[in-house]
Amino acid sequence: MAQRLVVVGNGMVGHRLVSAVRERDGAGRWQVEVFGEEARPAYDRVALTSYVDTWDEARLRLADHDSEVTVRLGDPVVAIDRNARTVTSRSGLVRGYDALALATGSYPFVPPIPGHDLPGCHVYRTIDDLDRIREAAGRLRVGRRAALVVGGGLLGLEAAKALRDMGLSPHVVELAPWLMPLQVDEGGGALLRRLVTSLDVTVHAGTGTQAVEQDGERLIAKLGNGTELDVDLVVFAAGVRPRDSLAVEAGLARGERGGVAVDATCRTSDPAVWAVGECACVEGRVYGLVAPGYAMAEVVADRLLGGSATFAEADTSTKLKLLGVDVASFGDAHARAEGALEVVVNDAVAGSYKKLVLSDDAATLLGGVLVGDASAYAALRPLVGRPVPGDPVGLLSGAVSAGALPADAQVCSCHAVTRAAVDGAIAQGCADVPALKACTKAGTGCGSCVPMLRQLLTEAGVEQSTALCEHFTQSRVELFEIVRSTGVATFSELVTRYGTGRGCDICKPAVASMLASLGGGHVLDGERAALQDTNDHFLANIQRNGTYSVVPRIPGGEITPEKLMVIAEVARDYNLYTKITGGQRIDLFGATVEALPAIWRRLVDAGFESGHAYGKALRTVKSCVGSTWCRYGVQDSVRMAIELELRYRGLRSPHKLKAGVSGCARECAEARSKDFGVIATEHGWNLYVGGNGGFTPRHAQLLVSDVDSETLVRLIDRFLMFYVRTADRLQRTAAWLEAMEGGLDHLREVVVEDSLGICADLEAAMARHVASYADEWRGVLEDQEKLARFTSFVNAPGTPDPTVSFREERGQRVPVLLGVPEVVGR
Amino acid sequence: MTEATTVCALADLIPDRGAAALLPSGEQVAVFRTGSGELFALSNIDPFSRAAVLSRGIVGDLRGVPVVASPMHKQHFALRTGECVEDPAVSVPVYPVRVESGRVVVEAR
Ligand code: SRM
Ligand SMILES: Cc1cc2nc3c(=O)[nH]c(=O)nc-3n(C[C@H](O)[C@H](O)[C@H](O)COP(=O)(O)OP(=O)(O)OC[C@H]3O[C@@H](n4cnc5c(N)ncnc54)[C@H](O)[C@@H]3O)c2cc1C
Ligand code: SF4
Ligand code: FES
């Protein structure tokens, strides 16, 4: 019978422990039950601050466990009875265990100064904390709003970022003479202060907070140096303390400075009880980072399944991006070793500070600090404790080659993956970073080792190709630039001059799409016809039996009864299966190739045009009914949706584009699941970008708020053209944005603030598109040569494909399935 | 005994694109004219989906071998041999094809 493992705490480390046990326990030796105090599924606390970007907790969520694991949320364990081997939860559940693992984490330390518990004082540890801060910030009246952060370490700067993103001006008070004293030295701290100050954060270093007092609806914070700050709220981020009280009450040994005492196997003084993560004190040391916690989780999982792993003193190297400033610290950052030498490159102009700590004979790298530019981190960290390869100043300029790394050097500290393991995986055939991630886990934690993984692949001779396909060594973006700047107008010229061979089903449609994005002309003109995928070739979507579907454009989903009747008549006369789509329009299925022109003639005559359901192009702009009818609507969402759909119809892009416009924040048009989504506000519109449904759903992120209609359209013009020019083939806007260096902030700089000075050009390109738009189906109907291609057989144009047959279902015609694929030649 | 069918004029075929033809036997053939001027004929039936669609695929080359990509699920078939590039155990029948006084003639197998 399975033994029972009870895990107390559903934070990052508790979650990892359970995954690690499930991964190893194929035989089902352990039945696992988890108790979590927080009422929500486990989430990525390291990324907590990014919650402010979207207020969407789903983005932080960690993978669910399989159904064998029982997870009880919002029900903390309140007592342990070690004799009976049971735990009791707050709701009164009593559960027996064979093994108990404590993963209760830490609680925020709040210095006991007068006023620390006034309303308006917060801590910074959980999603609930952030929700509370958000609510408090939302209640504030307009005017200059300020907040005080007590603590200038990692947590304090994270909190300052969150507050700034919520529109408050943060003040950070740090007792030590400089920020992040644990990680960086004085020189790094000085630069950090300068960089952070330029980001609207006021730093008060070398002084403490002595008291907080209520002043009407505001708070007055009194600092040790006499300064009085008038703020709206206070966030304590002055460090954490291990949550060991449950263990202590159960009589388990406690570390000298707190934490549940465990040995190198993570066992407490009771062999049936383990402790992992921030609540554990391993051989006298408590760790406040996630990587050592994960290592403990792996040790315990291994031991529970009969292994003999032990925890070695963990690497507390860190690389962070705080308020957009890179900070990294590794090894003996403070040069504490006897006789340690320091090499410092402090470039005030570039805004970077880099220090290496070397052994007294300058032969061994001991540690270092990087502020402002931490690009050398991935290469330097694994060299700690090893001979310095080459000139130390050269090393700081980032010129370390991965080849210098010894086989046992740890490349990924989050998952303790060595260079040998990565090389092994490459030898087994991993040919890119995603493959290495899947097979070694390296790179799946903080991500800071990814550049190193890329270097190791290159060192191993694995070419990391951005080539479009075997015919072009260039990426889509490069080819786009070539086509744009040279004006090459045909595929054959492009492949002759810049590629090899004759092309294939990858490069041909991609180039056809670029030619279409860049210039007018019909998508089936001349040679371009041969480049198109079958859908674009026949301007319809192929179905499983070789027939096609017909989707007329219905902008914004608005349609007159007369036009509805035309669709109904066409569907009836050609016997087409009819369905309302998920995109607020109507799809007519089952048309044979030779029937398409006649069907479209009827539709075009009635005023319909192509809906581009077949193209990598704008599909629909979905809309809600908006202020015209809806009692809540604050803007005319239908009018805006139609305007946008008509403006961008026909725009060929790297992948399909979808949009939505909602008339108020109730969001009935689901605009935030679209590539660009518009939501009406009292004063104008909010524009969201980078959303999609599909395989990996993404919520769109706010680009700008409260803009007027004209500005809205101008920004969408720029956004779309920038996407068309710089995205990879078949990369939707969400993936494009995720891959973009600097992410949403960078996008905003480019398309809102025009940091690259290209916006006029982007707008002009869109203006050309709008001016040259013509309905593709009308273009076919008016051109005998194009029409001639819509035949079933060259030698029997009127004869329908004899393999196509239909049956009836719920009163309509549907395809007869073509049978289990029977394969010739097997 | 093979039977020859004249299917169309050479000029009816768009370079690097296919066209479907119906043989008297009821078989469907996909006839391709590559950009370099070569002619090929394969069965029009995609063996993976059983739909008669190969003539509507994109023609190109993979490592120099002329191929057509099925428009259904994008497997490639060598135009010369009918062999599937992704799964050599699968192939489609090929038909002899030639030009006679400007007209394309396919022979049944
Ligand atoms: C007809 C429709 C389903 C329906 O009956 O409602 C549909 C049908 C197809 N979808 Fe879809 N999708 C339809 C709405 C959606 C939606 C919902 C929406 O738009 O509100 C989604 C999720 C939203 C999104 O795209 O972000 C959706 C996500 C996909 C995806 C996954 C995209 C992704 O980024 O992961 C594909 C695959 C692709 O595009 O590569 C896809 C591809 C397809 C294709 C084109 C597959 C194919 O190549 O044969 C289907 C054929 C359409 C046809 O023959 O006309 N369809 N598809 C809907 C047509 C909407 C329209 O009026 O144009
Ligand atoms: C804003 C922020 C930024 C950070 N950035 C970094 C970073 O960049 N790099 C890094 O390495 N680390 C970072 N950390 C620290 C990192 O999040 C922690 O090291 C990690 O979460 C520790 O995991 P844990 O499981 O030990 O504790 P936690 O994640 O805190 O989980 C403990 C869980 O146990 C629950 N619990 C407590 N008592 C009980 C009980 N009796 N019964 C049931 N449940 C209970 C708690 O509610 C909590 O959910 C950051 C932390 C914060 C807050
Ligand atoms: S989003 Fe708002 S305006 Fe539009 S239908 Fe819903 S409630 Fe009405
Ligand atoms: S070092 Fe964090 S993911 Fe590799």
Automatic annotation (TrEMBL), chain A:
Work out whether the entry's keyword set contains DNA repair: no
Annotated siroheme binding lies at: C668
Which coenzymes or cofactors are required?
A: FAD; siroheme; [2Fe-2S] cluster; [4Fe-4S] cluster
Query: Per the database record, which ranges form the FAD/NAD(P)-binding domain?
Result: 4-284
Listed CDD domains: NirB_Fer2_BFD-like_2
Q: What SUPFAM superfamilies would the database entry show?
A: FAD/NAD(P)-binding domain, Nitrite and sulphite reductase 4Fe-4S domain-like, Nitrite/Sulfite reductase N-terminal domain-like
Q: What keywords sit in the KW lines?
A: 2Fe-2S, 4Fe-4S, FAD, Flavoprotein, Heme, Iron, Iron-sulfur, Metal-binding, Nitrate assimilation, Oxidoreductase, Thioether bond
Quaternary context:
Homodimer which associates with NirD.
Kindly provide the name given to this protein in its UniProt entry. Answer: assimilatory sulfite reductase (ferredoxin)
From TrEMBL, chain B:
**Keywords assigned by UniProt, alphabetized:** 2Fe-2S, Iron, Iron-sulfur, Metal-binding, Nitrate assimilation, Oxidoreductase
Annotated coiled-coil positions are none
Among Pfam families, the record links this protein to: Rieske_2
What InterPro entries has UniProt attached to this entry? NirD, Rieske-like_NirD, Rieske_2Fe-2S, Rieske_2Fe-2S_sf
Domain named Rieske is located at: 5-106
UniProt GO BP: nitrate assimilation
Please list the GO terms describing molecular function: 2 iron, 2 sulfur cluster binding; metal ion binding; monooxygenase activity; nitrite reductase [NAD(P)H] activity; oxidoreductase activity, acting on paired donors, with incorporation or reduction of molecular oxygen
Which domain of life, per UniProt? Bacteria
What is the protein's name according to its record?
Nitrite reductase small subunit
Instruction: State the organism named in the record.
Output: Actinophytocola xanthii
Q: Which gene encodes it?
A: nirD
